[in-house]
């Protein structure tokens, strides 16, 4: 069932309405577990329940259902188990040996009636996989302190950071922390950036301080600053002290601004080049895969040094203009003279009006000395204007 994670779900008209995030089953003492249905994520990040009786067919790359989908938020009952989130990586007993659940399989035993029938187990190495009947395995009803996470991480590895964050958010707290702790530092940093503040705080609080500091270094300075701002002051100060000085410096600068100002929401790592760089060099920089579309939308031109806070800010060049110019053209000759930078003390309302007036997705932020200190992107602004629980798919009038 691990392969069902992320499978598109289609309604009777053939329109995709969401993706499978988990399978809901009911454990029974003397019989194979009955599959109750799927947890389906619909936009905006709302998890709803699709009863198995509504599923018309399950095929490679698609789940098709019939009837109407109840949009009420899914709530797990005490008698239910999330197959992907809670069964994978369990230590169970088979043939008097302890083994680990790698995956499970379900089967339609009667029309619209599905049961979990097979378990894929491994011991030590994944190459020692063994597929057995459900009835041959015991231990699914045992609460385990350290369940492990390798199987679930494998099921999640192809997901984008935002989708994995959504999947983690839907897991029980204990399981969420187990998975988060098992991720690589870089992957955990990407996922933390997409989680609600309460989940971020809960996960960071379980990490060793040294590792938490490393994960913060992997995050974007603006996201790291937001997270530290939400932590208790003493804990935030300790983590800052453990970070490498070069990594902590931009985070400290961001924390010095009010949280609801341009300085408080900006990124300190936009694309910055000197005026002597060429259009070809600028295009090479904005093609970097790890840049968000908003950050890659324009190149900021300054005098050296080109690390924030930079030398004198000269102007901005939009990527559309770059595409129209010969590759050898110098950036100093393709600046947009109509865009005035904003100040770090601008309020979010002023920043929003600025972006709307100029039809921009990002804006340069320049201090009183004329130095570029960062850039505010439209996604940064939305992240702070939306309700705090918007990532959870709650209903709000926006």
Automatic annotation (TrEMBL):
Secretion signal: which residues?
none
| Lineage, broadest ranks | Bacteria, Bacillati, Actinomycetota, Actinomycetes, Streptosporangiales
Q: Name one GO molecular function term.
A: magnesium ion transmembrane transporter activity
Q: Where is the CBS domain?
A: 335-398
Query: This protein is called what?
Result: Magnesium transporter
The organism is: Nonomuraea longispora
Q: Does the keyword rRNA-binding apply?
A: no
Key words, A-Z: CBS domain
Q: Which SMART domains match?
A: MgtE_N
An example GO CC term for this entry is: membrane
Pfam entry (one)? MgtE_N
């Amino acid at each position: 069932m691990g392969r069902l994670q992320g499978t598109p779900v289609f309604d009777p008209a053939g329109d995709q309405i969401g993706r499978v995030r988990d399978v809901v089953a009911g454990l029974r003492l003397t019989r194979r577990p009955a599959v109750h249905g799927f947890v389906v994520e619909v936009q905006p990040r709302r998890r709803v329940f699709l009863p198995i009786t509504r599923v018309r067919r399950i095929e490679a790359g698609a789940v098709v259902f019939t009837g109407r989908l109840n949009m009420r938020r899914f709530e797990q009952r005490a008698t239910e188990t999330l197959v992907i989130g809670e069964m994978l990586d369990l230590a169970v007993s088979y043939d008097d040996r302890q083994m680990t659940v790698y995956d499970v399989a379900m089967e339609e035993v009667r029309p619209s009636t599905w049961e979990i029938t097979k378990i894929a187990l491994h011991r030590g190495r994944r190459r020692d996989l063994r597929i057995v009947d459900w009835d041959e395995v015991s231990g699914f009803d045992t609460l385990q302190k350290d369940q492990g996470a390798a199987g679930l991480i494998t099921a999640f590895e192809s997901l984008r950071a935002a989708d994995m964050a959504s999947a983690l958010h839907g897991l029980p707290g204990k399981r969420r922390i187990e998975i988060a702790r098992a991720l690589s530092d870089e992957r955990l940093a990407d996922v933390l950036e997409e989680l609600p503040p309460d989940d971020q705080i809960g996960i960071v609080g379980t990490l060793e301080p040294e590792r938490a500091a490393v994960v913060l270094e992997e995050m974007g300075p603006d996201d790291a600053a937001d997270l530290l701002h939400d932590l208790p002051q003493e804990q935030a100060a300790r983590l800052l002290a453990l970070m490498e000085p070069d990594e902590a410096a931009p985070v400290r600068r961001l924390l010095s601004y009010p949280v609801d100002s341009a300085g408080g929401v900006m990124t300190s790592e936009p694309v910055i080049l000197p005026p002597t760089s060429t259009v070809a060099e600028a295009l090479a920089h904005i093609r970097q895969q790890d840049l968000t579309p908003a950050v890659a939308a324009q190149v900021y031109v300054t005098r050296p040094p080109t690390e924030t806070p930079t030398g004198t800010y000269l102007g901005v060049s939009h990527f559309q203009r770059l595409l129209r110019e010969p590759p050898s053209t110098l950036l100093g000759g393709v600046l947009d003279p109509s865009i005035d930078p904003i100040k770090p003390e601008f309020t979010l309302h002023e920043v929003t009006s600025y972006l709307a007036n100029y039809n921009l997705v990002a804006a340069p932020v320049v201090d009183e000395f004329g130095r570029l200190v960062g850039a505010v992107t439209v996604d940064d602004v939305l992240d702070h204007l939306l309700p705090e629980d918007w990532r959870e798919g709650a209903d709000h009038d926006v």
